[in-house]
Amino acid sequence: MTEKSKVSPFLQKLPNLITGSRLFFAAGFLVLLLMVDRQELRDAALDSQKWKLDWAFILFIIAGVTDIIDGPLARRFNVTSQFGRNFDPLVDKILIAGGFITLAIYPTDLTALAWWMVAVILAREILVTIIRQISEKKGIDFRATSAGKIKMLLQSVTIGTIIFYIAHCQGQTWAIWVRDILVYFTVAFTAFSAFVYLRRLKVLFKK
Fold first, then answer.
1. Which pLDDT tens digit goes with each residue over 29-56?
2. pLDDT in tens, 86-126
3. Where are the domains of the chain?
4. Cα(167)–Cα(20) distance, rounded to whole angstroms?
5. What is the distance between the alpha carbons of residues 61 and 63, in angstroms, rounded to a whole number?
6. What beta strand segments (E) does 124-198 contain?
7. What is the homologous superfamily of the domain 4-206 according to CATH?
8. How distant, in Å, are the alpha carbons of 140, 195, 199, 205 from that of 137?
Protein backbone atom coordinates (compact mmCIF):
# COMPACT_ATOMS: atom_id res chain seq x y z
CA MET A 1 0.00 0.00 0.00
CA THR A 2 1.46 3.36 -1.02
CA GLU A 3 1.63 6.30 1.32
CA LYS A 4 -0.96 8.11 -0.80
CA SER A 5 -3.44 5.23 -0.55
CA LYS A 6 -3.27 5.44 3.26
CA VAL A 7 -4.62 8.98 3.14
CA SER A 8 -8.39 9.48 3.11
CA PRO A 9 -9.96 10.77 -0.15
CA PHE A 10 -10.82 14.07 1.56
CA LEU A 11 -7.24 14.67 2.69
CA GLN A 12 -5.99 13.81 -0.78
CA LYS A 13 -8.18 16.58 -2.19
CA LEU A 14 -7.59 19.05 0.66
CA PRO A 15 -4.43 20.76 -0.72
CA ASN A 16 -6.14 21.46 -4.07
CA LEU A 17 -9.29 22.64 -2.29
CA ILE A 18 -7.20 25.08 -0.28
CA THR A 19 -5.46 26.28 -3.44
CA GLY A 20 -8.82 26.72 -5.17
CA SER A 21 -10.26 28.61 -2.21
CA ARG A 22 -7.46 31.16 -2.55
CA LEU A 23 -8.97 32.26 -5.86
CA PHE A 24 -12.20 33.23 -4.10
CA PHE A 25 -10.32 35.05 -1.32
CA ALA A 26 -8.27 36.86 -3.97
CA ALA A 27 -11.41 37.85 -5.89
CA GLY A 28 -13.07 39.16 -2.72
CA PHE A 29 -9.92 41.08 -1.83
CA LEU A 30 -9.75 42.78 -5.22
CA VAL A 31 -13.48 43.56 -5.31
CA LEU A 32 -13.27 45.27 -1.92
CA LEU A 33 -10.29 47.36 -3.01
CA LEU A 34 -12.20 48.42 -6.12
CA MET A 35 -15.29 49.24 -4.03
CA VAL A 36 -13.35 51.81 -2.02
CA ASP A 37 -14.28 55.37 -2.94
CA ARG A 38 -10.84 56.81 -3.64
CA GLN A 39 -12.19 60.35 -3.28
CA GLU A 40 -13.03 59.66 0.37
CA LEU A 41 -9.71 58.51 1.74
CA ARG A 42 -8.85 61.70 3.61
CA ASP A 43 -9.62 62.92 7.10
CA ALA A 44 -13.15 62.26 8.41
CA ALA A 45 -14.37 60.86 5.09
CA LEU A 46 -11.98 57.92 5.53
CA ASP A 47 -14.17 56.41 8.26
CA SER A 48 -16.81 55.39 5.70
CA GLN A 49 -14.21 53.44 3.71
CA LYS A 50 -12.23 51.78 6.49
CA TRP A 51 -14.39 48.67 6.69
CA LYS A 52 -13.70 47.87 3.04
CA LEU A 53 -9.95 48.32 3.52
CA ASP A 54 -9.98 46.28 6.73
CA TRP A 55 -11.89 43.40 5.16
CA ALA A 56 -9.66 43.52 2.09
CA PHE A 57 -6.68 43.27 4.44
CA ILE A 58 -8.23 40.29 6.26
CA LEU A 59 -9.01 38.42 3.02
CA PHE A 60 -5.49 39.13 1.79
CA ILE A 61 -4.03 37.62 4.98
CA ILE A 62 -6.25 34.54 4.66
CA ALA A 63 -5.23 34.11 1.02
CA GLY A 64 -1.59 34.35 2.07
CA VAL A 65 -2.05 31.71 4.75
CA THR A 66 -3.59 29.29 2.26
CA ASP A 67 -0.56 29.83 0.03
CA ILE A 68 1.71 28.85 2.90
CA ILE A 69 -0.11 25.64 3.85
CA ASP A 70 -1.31 24.07 0.58
CA GLY A 71 2.12 23.05 -0.73
CA PRO A 72 3.40 21.49 2.51
CA LEU A 73 0.11 19.62 2.93
CA ALA A 74 0.35 18.20 -0.59
CA ARG A 75 3.90 17.00 0.09
CA ARG A 76 2.96 15.69 3.54
CA PHE A 77 0.17 13.54 2.10
CA ASN A 78 2.15 12.74 -1.05
CA VAL A 79 -0.60 14.17 -3.26
CA THR A 80 1.26 16.78 -5.30
CA SER A 81 -0.49 17.27 -8.64
CA GLN A 82 -0.18 19.02 -11.99
CA PHE A 83 -3.25 21.07 -11.03
CA GLY A 84 -1.52 22.36 -7.93
CA ARG A 85 1.73 23.11 -9.73
CA ASN A 86 -0.08 25.12 -12.41
CA PHE A 87 -2.98 26.67 -10.49
CA ASP A 88 -1.00 27.76 -7.43
CA PRO A 89 1.28 30.24 -9.26
CA LEU A 90 -1.67 31.44 -11.36
CA VAL A 91 -3.68 32.39 -8.27
CA ASP A 92 -0.59 33.99 -6.75
CA LYS A 93 -0.29 36.20 -9.83
CA ILE A 94 -3.96 37.18 -9.65
CA LEU A 95 -3.60 38.05 -5.97
CA ILE A 96 -0.30 39.92 -6.14
CA ALA A 97 -0.39 41.49 -9.61
CA GLY A 98 -4.07 42.34 -9.14
CA GLY A 99 -3.30 43.90 -5.77
CA PHE A 100 -0.54 46.12 -7.14
CA ILE A 101 -2.55 47.16 -10.20
CA THR A 102 -5.57 48.05 -8.07
CA LEU A 103 -3.53 49.98 -5.51
CA ALA A 104 -1.77 51.86 -8.32
CA ILE A 105 -5.05 53.61 -9.18
CA TYR A 106 -5.22 54.99 -5.63
CA PRO A 107 -3.62 58.39 -4.95
CA THR A 108 0.16 58.00 -5.23
CA ASP A 109 0.84 59.91 -2.03
CA LEU A 110 -1.09 57.20 -0.15
CA THR A 111 0.47 54.15 -1.80
CA ALA A 112 3.95 55.35 -2.95
CA LEU A 113 3.29 53.22 -6.04
CA ALA A 114 4.08 54.50 -9.51
CA TRP A 115 2.97 52.75 -12.68
CA TRP A 116 6.56 52.02 -13.69
CA MET A 117 6.89 49.97 -10.49
CA VAL A 118 3.81 47.96 -11.38
CA ALA A 119 5.25 47.48 -14.87
CA VAL A 120 8.45 46.00 -13.39
CA ILE A 121 6.41 43.60 -11.25
CA LEU A 122 4.19 42.51 -14.16
CA ALA A 123 7.15 42.11 -16.55
CA ARG A 124 8.85 39.80 -14.06
CA GLU A 125 5.74 37.64 -13.72
CA ILE A 126 5.33 37.37 -17.49
CA LEU A 127 8.99 36.37 -17.83
CA VAL A 128 8.72 33.65 -15.20
CA THR A 129 5.50 32.33 -16.77
CA ILE A 130 7.26 32.00 -20.13
CA ILE A 131 10.22 30.21 -18.55
CA ARG A 132 7.85 27.87 -16.67
CA GLN A 133 6.06 26.94 -19.90
CA ILE A 134 9.36 26.24 -21.68
CA SER A 135 10.53 24.10 -18.74
CA GLU A 136 7.35 22.03 -18.69
CA LYS A 137 7.49 21.44 -22.44
CA LYS A 138 11.01 20.12 -22.01
CA GLY A 139 9.93 17.98 -19.06
CA ILE A 140 12.12 19.90 -16.64
CA ASP A 141 10.97 20.42 -13.05
CA PHE A 142 10.31 24.11 -12.40
CA ARG A 143 10.28 24.89 -8.72
CA ALA A 144 10.37 28.29 -7.08
CA THR A 145 13.83 29.55 -6.20
CA SER A 146 14.73 31.08 -2.85
CA ALA A 147 14.72 34.47 -4.58
CA GLY A 148 11.21 33.79 -5.86
CA LYS A 149 9.95 32.89 -2.39
CA ILE A 150 11.53 35.98 -0.82
CA LYS A 151 10.06 38.10 -3.62
CA MET A 152 6.59 36.72 -2.92
CA LEU A 153 6.96 37.42 0.80
CA LEU A 154 8.14 40.98 0.20
CA GLN A 155 5.34 41.71 -2.24
CA SER A 156 2.74 40.32 0.16
CA VAL A 157 4.08 42.36 3.09
CA THR A 158 4.20 45.48 0.93
CA ILE A 159 0.60 45.17 -0.25
CA GLY A 160 -0.61 44.54 3.31
CA THR A 161 1.42 47.48 4.61
CA ILE A 162 0.01 49.88 2.00
CA ILE A 163 -3.57 48.88 2.80
CA PHE A 164 -2.98 49.20 6.57
CA TYR A 165 -1.27 52.56 6.06
CA ILE A 166 -4.22 53.95 4.09
CA ALA A 167 -6.75 52.73 6.66
CA HIS A 168 -4.95 53.51 9.90
CA CYS A 169 -1.61 55.34 9.63
CA GLN A 170 -1.97 58.16 7.13
CA GLY A 171 0.48 61.01 7.66
CA GLN A 172 2.48 59.30 10.40
CA THR A 173 6.17 59.81 9.65
CA TRP A 174 7.33 56.37 10.79
CA ALA A 175 4.60 54.69 8.74
CA ILE A 176 5.53 56.66 5.62
CA TRP A 177 9.16 55.56 6.01
CA VAL A 178 8.20 51.91 6.46
CA ARG A 179 5.84 52.00 3.48
CA ASP A 180 8.31 53.76 1.17
CA ILE A 181 11.27 51.54 2.08
CA LEU A 182 9.19 48.41 1.56
CA VAL A 183 7.85 49.58 -1.80
CA TYR A 184 11.23 50.50 -3.28
CA PHE A 185 13.05 47.49 -1.84
CA THR A 186 10.32 45.14 -3.09
CA VAL A 187 10.47 46.54 -6.63
CA ALA A 188 14.29 46.30 -6.63
CA PHE A 189 14.25 42.72 -5.34
CA THR A 190 11.55 41.77 -7.85
CA ALA A 191 13.84 42.97 -10.66
CA PHE A 192 16.75 41.05 -9.12
CA SER A 193 14.72 37.84 -8.93
CA ALA A 194 13.96 38.17 -12.66
CA PHE A 195 17.69 37.94 -13.41
CA VAL A 196 17.88 34.78 -11.28
CA TYR A 197 15.25 33.18 -13.52
CA LEU A 198 16.99 34.45 -16.65
CA ARG A 199 19.92 32.24 -15.70
CA ARG A 200 17.50 29.30 -15.82
CA LEU A 201 16.46 30.37 -19.30
CA LYS A 202 20.08 30.17 -20.50
CA VAL A 203 20.31 26.62 -19.14
CA LEU A 204 17.04 25.63 -20.84
CA PHE A 205 18.24 26.77 -24.26
CA LYS A 206 21.37 24.69 -23.85
CA LYS A 207 19.28 21.52 -23.42
1. 999 999 999 999 987 789 999 999 999 9
2. 778 888 899 999 999 999 999 999 999 999 999 999 999 88
3. 4-206
4. 29
5. 5
6. none
7. CDP-alcohol phosphotransferase transmembrane (TM) domain (1.20.120.1760)
8. 8, 21, 18, 12
